[in-house]
Description:
By secondary structure, chain A is mainly α.
Amino acid sequence: MRRLFPILDWGPQYDRAALGNDLLAALIVTIMLIPQSLAYAMLAGLPPEVGLYASIAPLVLYALFGTSRTLAVGPVAVISLMTAAAIAPLVATGMADQLGAAVALAVLSGLILLAMGLLRLGFIANFISHPVISGFITASGLLIAAGQFPALAGLSVRGETLPHLIGAIWQKAPEASLTTLGVGLPVLAFLVWTRSHLRPLLLKVGVAPRLAGVLSRAAPVLAVVATTLASWGLQLDLPVVGDIPRGLPLPTLPPLDPALWQAILLPAALISLVGYVETISVAQTLAAKRRQRIDPDQELVALGIANLGAGFSGGFPVTGGFARSVVNFDAGAETPAAGAFTAAGMALATLFLTPLLYHLPKATLAATIIVAVLSLVDLSALRRVAQISRSDFLAMLATILLTLIAGVEAGISAGVILSILLHLWRSSRPHVAVVGQVPGTEHFRNVARHHVITAPGVLSLRIDESLYFPNARFLEDRLLAALAEEPGLRHVVLICAAVNAIDTSALETLEALNARLRDGGVTLHLSEVKGPVMDRLLRSHLRTELSGQVFLTHYDAMMALAPEVTRACHDAARCETARARAAR
Amino acid sequence: MRRLFPILDWGPQYDRAALGNDLLAALIVTIMLIPQSLAYAMLAGLPPEVGLYASIAPLVLYALFGTSRTLAVGPVAVISLMTAAAIAPLVATGMADQLGAAVALAVLSGLILLAMGLLRLGFIANFISHPVISGFITASGLLIAAGQFPALAGLSVRGETLPHLIGAIWQKAPEASLTTLGVGLPVLAFLVWTRSHLRPLLLKVGVAPRLAGVLSRAAPVLAVVATTLASWGLQLDLPVVGDIPRGLPLPTLPPLDPALWQAILLPAALISLVGYVETISVAQTLAAKRRQRIDPDQELVALGIANLGAGFSGGFPVTGGFARSVVNFDAGAETPAAGAFTAAGMALATLFLTPLLYHLPKATLAATIIVAVLSLVDLSALRRVAQISRSDFLAMLATILLTLIAGVEAGISAGVILSILLHLWRSSRPHVAVVGQVPGTEHFRNVARHHVITAPGVLSLRIDESLYFPNARFLEDRLLAALAEEPGLRHVVLICAAVNAIDTSALETLEALNARLRDGGVTLHLSEVKGPVMDRLLRSHLRTELSGQVFLTHYDAMMALAPEVTRACHDAARCETARARAAR
């Protein structure tokens, strides 16, 4: 029960102090969330109220089921972009209207997340590697910014890929409105400035650090208020948010067309995975700061239920947002109740504030989106990753380029598939080193890197990887090649110190190798076999059929197979002579 | 050049002795191959001459390009079954006739194999694990036998799955012919008897062991001759092979319908992979006996060209056969020229022998197939695999059941996908052990398995796996859970002795963990880091940001972090007292 309802953990100890802190945090987050919700609904190509609706029911549900004390869920930039991309073809083919498609997407994402959580399949998210998710977020940020820049000039441009967007902007550029630009650009400049300069300024004038952090993140609210007043007071002629229906969201049912559900299966799965990866990463960062615990499987359940709530209340897919969660945390939220209070705040806003938002310029929302997403863009990560791993770099580059050129679904899918294939490819070619004795010691090192002595007729191979079916045949090829190339070969010793695990394929390969080497007059030995590997060896045919022995240490093996050379090598000076004598 | 034309290796040294040996081997293999080729064409649902054609051009081409000296290619049982399964739906939907579909299948398999060889993608075949291929072959053997048993009674039954076959047999049973059964059952009994008893008998009467082996495998030829004579001489009324067109195969072009090629893409890919896995395993077994070398990538090229040859000469997919290769080897074949001579023998057979095969009873061919495939069935492997690994057992069982119930394509695909998923799942949960000091030593062991001493406030975790994206998050969850559970925790030391490699995702996870643990007041240390992993650590942010140290040995780490307990533990008697004192 406690696992499924984390509220049982913190509910009973809830007191007045926590209530005060949670209420204050909720107030601040609500103020920040109103323009964000409108902006992300706009980004997803949906009516503004949908953004508000997505910030009510999901928050209450997450508060009941989530294990993070401070995570704030709701519409976020990348998921809104993915929603826009998923909806567009459905609307274009007339399969559903925008709202119906969005609701179906939220419900299906919710079901997928819930199923993954109940079946404990959270590990599936592991297969989105860091370089892939980071490349995807960078490319999404670029795509979002490219789509929102025109809105600063009053242009409404849509497109799922960079080439489309550029083409559309090129075509519509003549229609740019200077009035809108006159609002949009200053807001953008102001927001960019506040990103880096407001917090230091506030600190300098003596504001407490935590409050300064919260205030500097609330700058978009200031921009919203100022430009709404200007647009209304000066009767400016620019695109504004306009009428938002007042009132709470009504229960909504998604369209029940099977073709629609089939069409959104992949997008919904991708939205679920990307949203989950983001959520868990934010939640864990915040939880660690207070030494709290996140249960990744329960987070899936909570996020799933939150998305079901979003769908059935006429919203669109939601996830844990980084910026708003940090504000919630910094503002002092202590329990998930803060989320429920935020939901109440958003509900009040839909009831009473929407008329005030009529004159809010769309350009202001575009500017807040641009500033929010440009902080997601991190192209320098490409260079960092390139320094560490070539295959990670490849996967990341492919993700970025494909996301930009072919869209979000193609980008993230290709990245995931490519990184899994590269991973399998790498693990199919384990590092295997021929080793020899370091003169004057009982140690053995790679012959290619160190001055070491090898005994004639004995091949010592160190396997630097667990042995399983993707790499079993590689070892076989390697050993059979050695067999064909070295006519004087009598013994092969496999050093298994780094073999953490072995599977049936690898065991059978070893059995076959053992037989083939024996047919070729070569004895197969093993050394430094770990416990779990030895357990399995003993249950295989090798227990009785291994032509050679299993040695505890490789030094023992060499003492048994080439005693003169090995013993002589203990004395560094005598090494070469002993080897030369043995080779004759 | 030599890599692409292995004939350049052995051609120049070809002499009269080798010629004699190769000619004798070719003669024996030809005699064995004639009934086999007819039988496997029948199994694939094709006219008998197609089997003969598939045993001419492919053999010559493999002799030119293959790296195995003794591998004999041609039609084999499992690939013939897969061909039958691939062709059936195409014929049923009228997309192609049987021969056209078979030819297209051979050409496409050839192209796939050739491309894999030229692009050096042979490693893809690694992903068919041993339990999956062994389960698949067992299930195929059962399917083939179930399809051939009715032919012993003169019934012609076709079906792609066991339920279909059983249903068809049930329906047709009343039509069973006693005459046919009177030929089929004795032949079957004779062949089963020769399998186990002929060779010992021949050895007892003084036949040389190698010759005895060859003769006992030629028993089907005796059955063919005897029953053909009986059928002709006694004018028996039973299904016979009938008219086989005389003459060499003519150049054939596959149908060019794009829909057909798309429909056979998956079957052709599966036939290629299964055929390749079988070929390489036979070739390596034989090559090792003579310490010869197989080049797996070149084998792909050779097998690809052989299949192209099969297709363009009106044959069906071929691969390296186990039984015939062993006969070739035992009969003394020295070079691939033996294969070319076999091809010449088969060509002569199509020119002059086909009238003699008119009266060959189909029941005899069915019996030879049954005996050949029953040796492939190895259900005891299930028990063996179960003892070694549960996930391998699951993959094998799924392969067998799905192959029997849903057909060969579903079976092998499901097996491969399941084993890759299980592999990824396993590698996403690496073995991680909390370790403590063995009293009186500098060694550290799993606290769950040994009596060891842990120092208060220090968590020592040994990671028994390389760190990469599939398992990065697992480590994170594990450590953050420890952080939340142990309020007194001050230091975490990760023992990386078994971490053979690390990727960007894992490095970034460590960076995040480092920051999160630091936020929670815990210092992160590493010990026993391997060279390649250290190289990457030094290129990441961890180089400057690691809150703790990197220790050469774990003992060093513990001496630095908990010196009293660790030093005291060197003396087994003082361990507990030191620990108790430190915990106060």
